[in-house]
């Protein structure tokens, strides 16, 4: 596949990830830190990426025409209502990891949810199926930030292998694979409640006891399908000392480091395979 001339290192230099601080900082850069850039280039129409790209041969391609950086529920409601009333195509983007291209769309209004970064530790949460500590996360919290918060409070949280993935985005909505999945289940199994703006502009909470059908749908039904998630509450488990992951050798090192540049497994795999 041939791409037009443009800057292709928007995910960061794959050899710079040496410690947790650097991984957390770089996980928040690249396409995650741009309102429209995404990692699945096939869905952008082979045009240049928004970040420092060569503009001489670029078109809008599959990128949205407009983007709204939301930091509150009210702003998300305004964006949804605006798009509905004007008949605009609407997409939702957190970090842009969605490999099915759902976080971009030609001519669309994009709701960028990457910036609500609040994290609150709850010592005791009681639901019909769970009793214990939890973490309340803003829509923009990424896996690296979730892990750092869990470590700070002496608990373990279930998140993705790729530390730049947004927890409340398509990761949870799509199921959410994790190094901890064999012990605690998928990312979607961790969700205790979800705050979401619906297509009609209403702001609701979905849980085991309210809006139960929506709660079921939001945990595996696909990203940006049922509404704009503004926050969610997830389980916090006892502290786990060691976790290991296996990356299949059929994947190229460049592909893995480009997709998951902050991954601990990527670092260890690099040491084993790069001489």
Word description of this protein:
The chain has 275 residues and is α+β, with helices and mostly antiparallel strands. It has two domains: 20-112, Uridine Diphospho-n-acetylenolpyruvylglucosamine Reductase, domain 2, CATH 3.30.43.10; 119-238, Uridine Diphospho-n-acetylenolpyruvylglucosamine Reductase, domain 3, CATH 3.30.465.10. Helix content is 24%, strand content 19%. The chain starts with 19 loop residues before the first helix and ends with a helix.
State the CATH class of the largest domain. Answer: Alpha Beta
The ordered string of helix (H) and strand (E) elements is HEHEEEEHEHHEEHEEHH
Query: Which ranges are low-confidence, i.e. pLDDT below 50, for 5 or more consecutive residues?
Result: 1-27, 250-259, 261-275
Share of residues in helices: 10-25%
Q: Main sheet, how many strands, which sense, barrel? A: 5 strands, antiparallel
CATH architecture of the largest domain: 2-Layer Sandwich
Structural class: alpha+beta
Q: For the residues shown, what is the average pLDDT?
A: 79
Return the CATH topology of the largest domain: Uridine Diphospho-n-acetylenolpyruvylglucosamine Reductase, domain 3
Overall 3D shape:
globular
Total number of distinct structural domains: 2
Structure summary, number of beta strands:
10
Q: In whole angstroms, how far apart are the ends?
A: 28 Å
Strand line-up in the sheet with most strands: 4-5-9-7-8
- Radius of gyration, in Å, reads 19 Å
What percent of residues are in strands?
15-25%
């Amino acid at each position: 596949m041939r791409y037009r001339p443009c800057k292709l290192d928007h995910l960061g230099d794959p050899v710079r990830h040496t410690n947790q601080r650097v991984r957390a900082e770089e996980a928040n850069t690249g396409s995650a830190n741009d309102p429209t850039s995404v990692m699945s280039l096939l869905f952008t129409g082979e045009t240049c990426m928004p970040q420092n790209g060569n503009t001489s041969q670029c078109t809008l391609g599959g990128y949205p025409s407009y983007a709204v950086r939301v930091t509150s529920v009210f702003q998300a409601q305004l964006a949804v209502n605006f798009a509905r009333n004007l008949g605009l195509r609407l997409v939702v983007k957190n970090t842009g990891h969605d490999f099915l291209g759902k976080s971009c769309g030609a001519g669309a209004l994009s709701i960028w949810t990457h910036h609500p970064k609040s994290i609150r530790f709850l010592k005791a949460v009681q639901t019909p199926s769970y009793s214990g500590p939890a973490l309340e996360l803003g829509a923009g919290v990424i896996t690296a930030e979730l892990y750092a918060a869990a470590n700070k409070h002496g608990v373990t949280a279930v998140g993705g292998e790729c530390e730049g993935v947004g927890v409340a985005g398509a990761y949870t909505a799509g199921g959410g694979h994790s190094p901890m999945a064999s012990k605690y289940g998928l990312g979607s199994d961790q969700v205790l409640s979800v705050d979401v703006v619906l297509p009609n502009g209403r702001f609701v909470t979905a849980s085991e006891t309210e809006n139960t059908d929506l709660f079921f749908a939001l945990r595996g039904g696909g990203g940006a399908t049922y509404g704009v998630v503004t926050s969610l509450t997830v389980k916090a488990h006892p502290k786990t000392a060691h976790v290991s992951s296996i990356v299949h050798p059929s994947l190229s090192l460049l592909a893995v480091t480009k997709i998951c540049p902050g991954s601990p497994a990527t670092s260890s795999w690099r040491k084993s395979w790069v001489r």
